Amino acid sequence: MLLSKVFNTDKDIEIRNIMFDSRKETPDSIFFAMKGKINDGHDFIDKAIENGAICIVHTDEVDKRDGIAYIQVKDAVSAYVSFCKAFYDNAIDKMNVIGITGTNGKTTIAWILRDIISHFNKCGYIGTMGYCYDEEIHDSDRNLTTPKSDELFRIAKEMYDHGCETLVLEASSEGLLTRRLEQIHFSTAVFNNLSDDHFDVHGDIESYFKAKCILFDMLGAEDKAIINIDDTYGKRLFTYWKAQNISYAIDHEADYQAVNIELHNDGSEFDLLFHEKQYHVKTNMPARFNVYNVLAVIAVLNENGYPLDKIIPYLETTKLTPGRCQLIEAGQDFNVIVDYAFTPNSFVKVFDFAESITPEDKKIIAVFGASGDRDHNRRPGTAKIADQRADVVILSFDDPSTEDMMEILIDLKTYFHRLDPEIILDRVEAIRKAIRLAKSGDTVLLLGKGSDHFFLCENGRVPYISDETAAIEAIALKFQNKL
């Protein structure tokens, strides 16, 4: 792409790549010297040039080399976003973009939206699962819920070129705070809930909430904000945004309200109240928290022109999000649930569900760990909930990143007082132990990894067979009396 298409410059050179990492060889590229919390991109300009950058966008004064184009701007992040968007033909502007935010439920809401919309027209998804269109899931390059702008706009163009008319996107608080979603027009934004989390990034709950609010600041008067008003922060959000506010709830009157809820082991059903009419909804998603997710899905779809009588039938057979309250059925007479839960709030919800399907005289056996390099304040909360509500706990491998996994688990164990958790570092062995202990009617919870097929370690991703596969194999071994 010619440089002059984005910048007011007479240096009409052809840019063929966007360099994000100055350490990687990227020929004929443009490098943006952005300032982060730790690093300043200006310190890596020389390295960027060595690795193929032919244009440097900067804010501070820099020493200049012959044969390199230099463009000084007031805001390198804004310039970076603008260039990335133009580099990928502004494809994202040609799609209807729906943003989902909240501490819990983002992935489930976005995934189900993509599935149901796909019955009507092509729809793409970007989020924790990676990105998906045409039923194929792809990993994102940097394992981020909300990719950085160069990858985000590249994926959007790929989707648009494959005929996607709609893009459903998980908007993480960190992605919003670091401006990865800047210059995107969202026609619809969803706020599902907010609870203590990500304090390693935001410091406190109020700052975390304000980061979420950025998504709604981006909406115009004709756009729609769909908000869970049962949530304390959702109530606050509902009162002061310029977009068209639409509410959903269980415990309060709302534009979309669920009443007469019945929860089952393998799904749920409820009556939807909307504009003084009542619609019966049956879903294949268990647990009360999924009723909120379904309400959000219904509201988004209906407000985007998909009639209720057309969309509600799809909720009974929608493709479930892998690793989200996923029931493993392998012929066993006990429950096995795989869930991505790794925060205290998500632990409460998954234990609520586990207790609802486990007879009082049966046991709940939980396997989980804690990730490294993240908010350590999660550990006391998750441990406390498991200590109070599980009967057996096995602590095992998660995502250590740069920390030592055994040290993480030893630290996690100190927060238990009623139970004495066993530490089994090998996660497959930990799952086998849990399955071996399970008797008829018990419930085994495999928490933290969801559908992940990898561990995040110091040197990157390490392959893992996934909790689902480990559980199915362990059940098979149990049937063969080999556990």
Structure description:
There is one protein chain. By secondary structure, the protein is an alpha/beta fold. The protein has 3 domains: 3-83, MurE/MurF, N-terminal domain (Udp-n-acetylmuramoylalanyl-d-glutamate--2,6- Diaminopimelate Ligase, Chain: A, domain 1), CATH 3.40.1390.10; 91-316, UDP-N-acetylmuramoyl-L-alanine:D-glutamate ligase (3-Layer(aba) Sandwich); 326-479, Mur ligase, C-terminal domain (Protein-Tyrosine Phosphatase, Chain A, Alpha-Beta Complex). Helix content is 31%, strand content 23%. It has helices at residues 45-50, 76-87, 106-117, 149-161, 173-177, 199-202, 205-217, 232-238, 288-303, 308-311, 344-357, 378-389, 405-413, 427-437, 467-479; strands at 17-19, 29-32, 53-58, 69-72, 96-101, 123-127, 130-133, 136-138, 166-170, 186-191, 224-228, 244-249, 256-264, 267-274, 277-283, 326-327, 335-339, 364-368, 392-395, 422-423, 443-447, 454-457, 460-463. It has an 11-stranded mixed β-sheet with strand order 8-7-6-9-5-10-11-12-13-14-15, sandwiched between helices. A 6-stranded mixed β-sheet has the order 16-17-21-18-19-20, with helices on both faces. It is globular and about 75 Å long. The mean pLDDT is 93.
